[in-house]
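Support case: user asked for a sample of complex input and structure output to validate their parser. Sending the pair below.
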Amino acid sequence: MDNLNKRLTESLENYLETIAMLKRENKIARVKDISKELDVKNSSVNIALNVLADKGLVIHEKYGYVDLTEEGQKIADDIQHKEDVLVKFFTEILGVDQEIALKDACRMEHTISDETLAKLIFFIGKIGREGNKRKK
Amino acid sequence: MDNLNKRLTESLENYLETIAMLKRENKIARVKDISKELDVKNSSVNIALNVLADKGLVIHEKYGYVDLTEEGQKIADDIQHKEDVLVKFFTEILGVDQEIALKDACRMEHTISDETLAKLIFFIGKIGREGNKRKK
DNA sequence: TAAAAAAGTTATATTAATCTAACATTTTTT
DNA sequence: AAAAAATGTTAGATTAATATAACTTTTTTA
């Protein structure tokens, strides 16, 4: 288990996120589902899973299901949270089209810092409260 | 000249942006300046310049200066504009620290869509006008 | 102006992420 | 339960971006 606390690549983050999503929607994640979702080949998924397993982020028994470790799940949740915040900001505050907002968020979720995310969350909250005030 | 209108990689965009910046600040750009700025080796710069020259975005005479073509300059300006808008939003509206804002913007400038950028510019303008109103 | 230093280039290697093709295992169907 | 289909794995290739090391050209300096 390669446990140096280095940042994951965007690609590996996407694998974690996808596995978490599949578990949420289908209860289980299989290689085939992941490759379909990410539009890559099974062989690519396999290689990525080996890397992630090596880092202690996924569990993958040969020919079996794919699961996230606690740490892997935490990372996936973190990225999903970033995506959700970005999508909300883009659609509800900027008025960006849903599809474009999602596409942008899925790329930016890998690069926004925790500091900027925190400020963005605060800002969204503030704008929301101002909006309510006006409606009263 | 490989003139398929495909999107550039983040790395190549960074080279264009850096060359544009050096031209702006120093009048000229040299391999050494680019490598220093991007923290890569001269040999890496060379390879990138060959790729960019092949795409008709830079001009690079052997052992000579590096310049941008009109198209290369246009792309560089576009990326720089995205960076400026993002930095402005992060610092002036969200209140993010200057250094972190710049770091985030330098990554996100490669992924934000034109649509989202346009909405963000509009939003910044609107917030600015509201701010002025209050001050009156 | 010749030697030394700096800058630039080329050849070769490495890493990450992907692919295709061949092979292995599991699941489904008849 | 045997054959066929689906799924998963492995081996080997490719592409992009980088590095190191050796080499070339240009610039500086003594």
